[in-house]
Amino acid sequence: MYKKPDVIVIGSGAGGGTLTKRLSELGAEVLLIERGRSLPREQDNWSVEEVFNKKKYSPFEIWQDRNGKDFRPSTWYNIGGSTKFFGTVMTRLRARDFESIEHAEGISPEWPFRYSDLEPYYCKAEELFGVHGDPSNDPTEPFRSAPLPYGPVGSEPFIADVTRKLALKGLHPFPLPVAVDLHPGTRCVEPALKTGRVTMWTGATARRLILEPSGRQIQGVEVDYHGEIRTISAQIVVLSSGAVNSTLLLLRSATDAMPNGAANSSGVVGQNYMTHNLTTVMAVSTKKNPTRFQKTLAFNDFYEGDGEFHFPMGNVQTLGKLQAGMLVAGAKYLPRFIGSQLASRSLDLLVTSEDLPHSDNRVTLEGGKVRITVSPNNMQGHRRLNRKLVGILKDIGFPLVLSKTLPVNFTAAQCGTIRIGRSPEAAALDGFCRSFDHSNLFVVDASFFPSSGAVNPALTIAAQALRAADHIARTDFGLSVSGQL
Q1: Domain regions of the chain by residue span
Q2: pLDDT digits (tens, 9 = 90+) for 48-61
Q3: Least C-beta-crowded within 10 Å: which of 6, 48, 203, 302?
Q4: What is d(CA 319, CA 391) in angstroms, rounded to the nearest whole number?
């Protein structure tokens, strides 16, 4: 039975799922719209062939790059959103990331609030997602009002030895903060449903927002629900579909009053698309690496530069353990036997650097087709960090180091297309993710990021979702937000 909700949330990932849980606990009635369905728990979840080669869990969706070439995006539609497939890493942005920072190739803009405003919600998000780790050895770790809820997962012997060798070189390796369920409990959507205040539609795709004639309010949402077109309404509408799909929904909602799309009187919707500069590194040892869970190590010693290069460089962290089939999936001419031998001896890492927001890097709809127009930027610091890492790895006993910089149309960690800011002339959303144009519309996913930093975005999305939920409950519904999650 359909009951008119207080809030419609479109998307169930790190933003929408977290916000839905918080609002329902505070007393709001929520309708959660998810275009996917439950991800099946099955043996193929663990199959390199099914996941990497056949892309069993990826939607068969085609987008175009800046040259009009088709590609399949790294995005997923299921309960939990793309967060269902993320790398479990939940790191806070550094305190300086909220300020204006000079990079080698430009300026990373400031946020409309500071780290201290989000810090209490970082703590709540870490508790909600059950984050394991110990940041005490990280020289860039910002102040925190509470420790991580769980200690480190613990490194297996091979990674523990690498950690020891990095420390001997004067670096500061620390346990990577990961949201791995080593303890009972579910996180967002299932607990939200148990409150009795949440209705979830799966297999439901939001087609457009319906604006009032004046354009000042969202009057309803048009939804394709299992082939039936329905129009639904609520006092508050929240988009949490990701930086690309939330943008597309706004663009498809253009009217005479808002000809550039909903929430877009500033013209910034779709602009400033970012995903990070990313390089995967395979350091091959003469010894086999039997590690099963490898994502237990990171270091930020060069996050803000070093004595020779006074601009930010980025983060280094371990990847999940590569297997032979994964290598073959990304290399046309690599025989499986050679791939297997390399993978069995490899330490696998990810180098992450900040890409800067540029208006020319954007998401657009052209003839009904989705185009991601992106040119690489701010690569000087990224390349320098890659070179430093190669030297470090060879010094600690890895004679062969292979690397691959991911293409700019790699759509994981997408952010920035519906930015927050202080001014409606320069931003689409205020500091609580409320649209400047429509007082009953919020966008709570990585779209709101004014800058990307050089760490994984999931924890910041979740923390801001909790902050926005409290703001909505207090300001729009007069609900009390005291008490713990």
Answers
A1: 1-42+75-131+179-274+414-485, 153-176+277-353+375-408
A2: 788 877 888 888 88
A3: 203
A4: 19
